[in-house]
């Protein structure tokens, strides 16, 4: 008699991320932006809502250097950080 347990024939089928893969920043082109963002997270007890401008800057760096696909900032959740013309508000 076999004691092997059969949990069905369910198999896991991996699927790619919604936005696809993107290259790593091997040359450190956006390292400064990443470090500023990570420091902000640390200083704010990892509350990402406090570091949205730093996150936006990091993603813009990645898009400018073709380390990720260009996306409208509104689509990435930064609409409130843009003015009517689609640019960052002046401080």
Automatic annotation (TrEMBL):
Q: Which SUPFAM superfamilies match?
A: Cysteine alpha-hairpin motif
Q: What's an example Gene Ontology biological process for this entry?
A: mitochondrial respiratory chain complex IV assembly
**Keyword Transport tagged:** no
Q: Which InterPro entries match?
A: COX19, Cys_alpha_HP_mot_SF
GO CC annotation: mitochondrial intermembrane space
Keywords of the record, alphabetical order, are: Cytoplasm, Disulfide bond
- Where found, per UniProt? Cytoplasm
Entry superkingdom: Eukaryota
Q: PROSITE patterns from the entry?
A: CHCH
Q: Which family does it belong to?
A: Belongs to the COX19 family.
* Name the UniProt record assigns to this protein: Cytochrome c oxidase assembly protein COX19
Q: Which organism is it from?
A: Paramormyrops kingsleyae
């Amino acid at each position: 008699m076999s004691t092997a347990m059969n949990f069905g024939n369910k198999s896991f089928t991996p699927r790619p991320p919604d936005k696809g893969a993107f290259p790593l920043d091997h040359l450190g082109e956006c390292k400064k932006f990443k470090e500023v963002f990570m420091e902000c997270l640390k200083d704010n007890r990892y509350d990402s809502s406090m570091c949205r401008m730093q996150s936006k800057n990091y993603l813009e760096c990645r898009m400018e250097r073709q380390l990720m696909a260009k996306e409208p900032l509104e689509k990435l959740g930064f609409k409130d950080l843009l003015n009517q013309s689609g640019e960052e508000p002046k401080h």
